[in-house]
Amino acid sequence: MTVDVQATRDVVDIITGGWRAQALYTAVKLGLPDHIQAGCDTDSELAKATGANEQGIHRLMRLLVAMGIFEGSESTRYRSTQVSATLVDGPHSLRDMCLLYGEEFYSAWGHAHHAISTETSGFEVAYGQSFYEWLGQDPATARRFQLTMNAASMFFHQVPEVFEFSGKKVVDVGGGGGHLLATILGAAPDAKGTLFDREHMMPKASEHLSATVGLDRAELVAGDMFKGVPAGGDVYILCRVLAGWDDEAVVRVFENCRRAMVDSSSRLLILDRFVEDENSTVLPALWDLHLLVTTGGEHRTVDRITRLLNQAGLDIAETAELPMETTALIAASRTP
Question: Which CATH code is given to the segment(s) 153-333?
């Protein structure tokens, strides 16, 4: 039997992916991107700055250079790259994403077999409670999760390009830290907005909106989207908030948005990643499985979301593609 060397290499690359992820996590945990950018560019300097073993740093850096995270070597001095620059601590850093995925989510994925076999959360097996319950009692993880969501919002700047917000009252349902609403109001100076989310999100959202567009243009309302949403909006936004809930709950949110719309010209804007059962690309399929493992949730197909919208008396009027395989669905109340 002839061995297919390429197929074997492909399998090895896949099964060692977790090792690569943990190597990157360790680099971020030690603050190596920040230290190297600050001028610590040898094993001894990095060991001193991090308190880690020098030979351990040497072996880790050898792999990270091979992976393209850094450049150089001990003899030529380590240098930052465009990749490592995204991991330096700061407002748009992927640092917190690496930490969250390397700790809580990595533990959850250790129970992937259970999650897939039972279609229940692996996170609950690892931590004894749901992911959202864990966030409610662990402020550090909750902050890391919010910063991760913010860092993964690289499509926000293109949302005003696919929908006209000028002069409208925008209600961001489940608006989190306020980054999307701030981006929209920044692009439409005559628009006003309402950020609607749970009470614990209000301080962070208030801080961000106050510093960006001002609280004279953006009000904050705390509440439960399953019980109702603020009335009188021209456009309601649901950005990445549906995946953790079952179909019945999603229909209820759609109905609440429809009832709250100011008139028939109002729209519901859904921003999310959708899966396809035929010819799927990796990213949506991977994130769908990640949702199962971490929250027990799922990404839906556009057809399935369409059916849920129809149940709530809404029809899709337009669609638009956004970066990172995200789609904008623009829905309107069904005409009698």
Answer: 3.40.50.150
Give the residues across from 330 on adjacent strands.
269, 318
> pLDDT (tens digit, 9 = 90+) per residue, 258-282?
999 999 999 999 999 999 999 888 9
pLDDT in tens, 27-67: 999 999 999 999 999 999 999 999 999 999 999 999 999 99
- Residue 3 neighbours by CB distance under 10 Å: 7
Partners of 56 in beta bridges: none
Q: Determine how β-strand 314-322 pairs with β-strand 267-272.
A: unpaired
CA–CA separation, 173 vs 188, rounded Å? 19
The per-residue pLDDT for range 143-160, each reduced to its tens digit, is 888 888 877 778 899 999
R_g over Cα of the chain? 22
* Closest-CA residue to 289 (of 280, 279, 299): 299
Collapse the DSSP code of 261 into the 3-class scheme (helix H, G, I; strand E, B; otherwise coil) and give the result.
strand
Strands of the chain (E only): list them.
Answer: 169-173, 192-197, 218-222, 235-239, 267-272, 314-322, 326-333
| Contact assessment for residue 78 and residue 65, using Cβ atoms and an 8 Å cutoff | yes
265 contacts: CB under 8 Å, gap ≥ 6: 234
CA atoms of 334 and 317, how far apart (whole Å): 10
Fold that domain 5-89 belongs to in CATH? Arc Repressor Mutant, subunit A (1.10.10)
Q: Are 125 and 111 in contact (CB under 8 A)?
A: yes
What one-character DSSP code corresponds to residue 40?
A: -
Q: Are strands 218-222 and 192-197 parallel, antiparallel or unpaired?
A: parallel
CA–CA distance, 7 with 10 (Å, rounded to integer): 5
Question: Which sequence spans correspond to the domains of the chain?
Answer: 5-89, 100-150, 153-333
* pTM score, whole prediction: 0.83
Report in angstroms the alpha-carbon separations of 196 from 171, 178, 220, 285: 7, 9, 6, 29
Partners of 237 in beta bridges: 172, 269
> Is 254 in contact with 312 (CB distance < 8 Å)?
yes
